[in-house]
Amino acid sequence: MVDHAPRENVNQVVDNGKGESSEEESGQGQSGEGGGGPEGGGRGYELPLLLFGGFRTLIDRLHARLATEGHPDLRPAHGFAMQAIGARGATASEIGRRLGVSKQAAGKTVDRLLALGYAERADDPSDARRKLVHLTPRGCAALARSAAIFDELRAEWAAALGADRVRDLEAALRNVVPAETAFRLDATSWLGAP
Question: The pTM is what?
Fold first, then answer.
C-alpha cells in the first residue's frame, strides 16, 4: 500500500519511525512497559524486519568481503545453491527441490555457477542418464572463506553487543525456530527466484 499524502505514511512497514508521529503512534501513553506492544517493546511487524535486517547486514558484509577476496560475482543465491549442491553433488532436480524452486530455475543458477567456475557437471557413476553438479575447488574455497568470514562477523557482533548477549540471542532463536526449519535452504523460493 502506498500513501501519497504529504508527511504521512500509512504503511507501517515502510515507515522507519524517523518522521513525526503522535504520542499514541510512538507507543507513549499505552499500557505495558516500553509501550508499543502488549508485552512492551516494539510492534509485531518490527521483529521480522529487524531479524531480516540483521540477516541482510551479515550477508551484505559477507559479499563485500568476498568481492575483495576474488569472488566479486558471487551472489547470495549462489551461496544457497552451493549449499544445496553439497559435498557429494546433486542433480538439477535435487538442487531445485532443496531450494524450493523449479528444476529450470535451479538450472539457471547452476549455469551461472558453471560459468563463474564454482561448479561443474559430470556423469553420475551410478546412472549414466543423470548429470551431477559438483562444486569445483573454487566453489569449495568460496564456501570455506564464507564460513570464516561469518565467524569474524559473529565476533564483531559479540564485541559490539557482548558475547553473552549474542549467545543468549542464538539460544533464544533456537528455542523459537523449529529444528526442521532452522537451516532450510529454500528462502529463495519466497524471496524470489535464485
Answer: 0.74
